[in-house]
Specification:
globular, mainly alpha, DsrC-like_N
Length: 104
């Protein structure tokens, strides 16, 4: 498994740069990851990220956009505003989770 150094932390990533070790992530690291893709984190961003982080251990995979909207209570339109263009991929990246199934 490849590793990379971000914000002085060595983390395990896949070939696309998504983190592969759940416990290596911190909110500080999430802020750095978000900045790398041009996102400045707000309370609304953190609501989505915290939902993904809490949902992952229960289901063993990254929640889809539909699940974040229906179970997480964040409308899809808002997710596209918070994480423009590819919200599911961007949320997973910032949350330190694998790319959601079905994302290209």
């Amino acid at each position: 498994m490849p590793t990379t150094t971000i914000d002085n932390h060595e983390i395990h990533v896949d070939d696309e740069g998504f983190m592969t070790q759940y416990d290596e992530w911190t909110e500080d690291l999430g802020t750095v990851l978000a900045a790398q893709i041009g996102i400045e984190m707000s309370d609304e961003h953190w609501k989505a990220i915290r939902f993904l982080r809490s949902d992952f251990p229960e289901h063993g995979e990254t929640a889809t956009l539909r699940r974040v909207a229906t179970v997480g209570g964040i409308p899809t339109k808002q997710l596209f505003t918070l994480f423009p263009k590819k919200p599911a991929k961007k949320m997973a990246y910032v949350a330190g989770l694998p790319k959601p199934r079905g994302c290209v």
